């Protein structure tokens, strides 16, 4: 049985997989379970960059990573698919933080207005 291996930019492939795995919040054990392989195999792929094309594509699928970015020697960026649930969650959190920031700004302004009103009342009562 002749297995096709991906040797393109071996060190970079392993590093990119490790970065993508950590970014997604998976341990090596969890990733191994998700791709139906063993933790030592995942560790070996991360260290050497060697693995069957099938396994590497499965890893990309689980991590929502573009396979072409993974194998490219010149591209050190990793493209996560827009459908990634983690990205969607982070986008929602960003939007909520923007809303909260706006509300806090409004609250601060209303407190400043109230303080100014109270200062005016106090200054009017002084003889």
Concise structural overview:
With 127 residues, the protein is mainly α.
Topology record:
Elements (H helix, E strand, L loop, with lengths): L9 H15 L3 H8 L3 H10 L4 H11 L3 H5 L13 H41 L2
Helix pairs in contact: 1-3, 2-3
Overview of the structural elements:
The chain is rod-shaped. The protein starts with 9 loop residues before the first helix and ends with a helix. The longest helix has 41 residues, at 85-125. Helix content is 71%, strand content 0%. By secondary structure, the chain is mainly α. It has helices at 10-24, 28-35, 39-48, 53-63, 67-71, 85-125. Helix 2 (28-35) packs across helix 3.
Order of helices and strands: HHHHHH
The tally of beta strands, per DSSP, is: 0
Number of helices: 6
Morphology call: rod-shaped
For the terminal residues, how far apart are their CA atoms?
101 Å
Proportion in helices: over 70%
Regarding quaternary structure, what we see is single chain
List keywords for this structure.
single chain; 127 residues; mainly alpha; 71% helix; rod-shaped; disordered N terminus
């Amino acid at each position: 049985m002749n297995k096709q291996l991906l040797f393109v930019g071996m060190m970079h492939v392993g590093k990119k997989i490790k970065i993508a795995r950590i970014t997604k919040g998976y341990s090596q054990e969890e990733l191994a379970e998700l791709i139906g392989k063993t933790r030592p195999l995942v560790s070996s792929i991360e260290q050497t960059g060697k693995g069957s094309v099938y396994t590497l594509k499965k890893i990309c699928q689980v991590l929502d990573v573009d396979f072409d970015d993974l194998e490219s020697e010149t591209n050190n960026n990793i493209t996560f698919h827009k459908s990634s649930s983690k990205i969607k969650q982070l986008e929602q959190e960003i939007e909520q933080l923007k809303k909260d920031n706006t509300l806090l700004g409004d609250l601060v302004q209303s407190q400043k207005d109230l303080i100014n009103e109270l200062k005016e009342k106090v200054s009017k009562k002084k003889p």
